[in-house]
Amino acid sequence: MDDKKKIGIWKSFTVSFGVIITGIFFVFGIYQCHQAKLESEQDLKEFSERMSLILSESLADPLWNMDTEVIEKIVDSLMSDKRIRAISVRENSGFIIKGRQRNERGELIDKNDNIGDNFLRLSAYIERNGDSLGKTEIFVSKKIMADDLKNKTAKIILMTLLMNITALVLIYSVMFISEGNF
Fold it and tell me: Is pTM, for the whole model, over 0.85?
C-alpha cells in the first residue's frame, strides 16, 4: 500500500473516531445536564419539606399560647433564607395570624395573596398533643434553582468541550507520531 493511501485511511479513521468521540461526549453532556436538573428539583423539594416541617413544629407552642411576637420572630427567622418567597401561618378558620413575603426588591413585607405561580408551595398542619391548631404555607422560589441549574449546565458544557478537544488533540497527536509526517 502506498503512502498516500495510508495517509487517506489514517485521516478517515481520525475523522471518524473524532466524530464518534464528539457524539459520545455530547450524549454524556446531555445526560449530565438531565441529572443536574433532577438533583436540583429534588434538593428544592427536600429543602421545602424540611422548612415546612421546621416551621410547623416550631409554631406549636407559640400558636397554642397565641404569642404573636414569637410567631413573628420564627417566621422572620426562616424568611432570612432567600429561597423562601413567602410564609403564612393560619388558624384552622383560615385567618392569617402572620404572613410575610418578599417584594420584587427582595424586601420583607406583610403577606398578601398575590404570590405568583413560579413557586413550590407546601403546607403543613400545626399540631399540639394531637390537636390541630392551624396550618403553615411556605412558598419556595424556583428561580434560585433555575439559576443554579444554569451554572451547573454551563460547567458541564465547558467540561464536555474541554474533554472533547483534549481527546481530539490526543488522537491527532497519536496519528502524527505514529506516521511521522502528518
Answer: no
Q: Which of the 8 DSSP states describes residue 86?
A: E
**Can you tell me the distance from the alpha carbon of 12 to that of 8, in angstroms, rounded to the nearest whole number?**
6
Neighbours of 122 (CB within 10 A): 19
90/72 Cα distance (integer angstroms): 12
pLDDT, position 6: 67
Q: Which residue has the cell 416550631?
A: 58
Coil/strand/helix, residue 63: helix
Contact 90, 69 (CB under 8 A): no
Q: Are 86 and 115 in contact (CB under 8 A)?
A: yes
User: In angstroms, rounded to a whole number, what is the distance separating the alpha carbons of residues 110 and 126?
Assistant: 21
End-to-end CA separation in angstroms for the chain: 17
Q: How confident is the model at residue 129 (pLDDT cuts 50, 70, 90)?
A: confident
Taking CB atoms within 8 Å and a gap of at least 24, the contacts of 169-178 are 171/14, 171/17, 171/18, 171/21, 172/14, 175/10, 175/13, 175/14
Strand-pair partners of 121 = 139
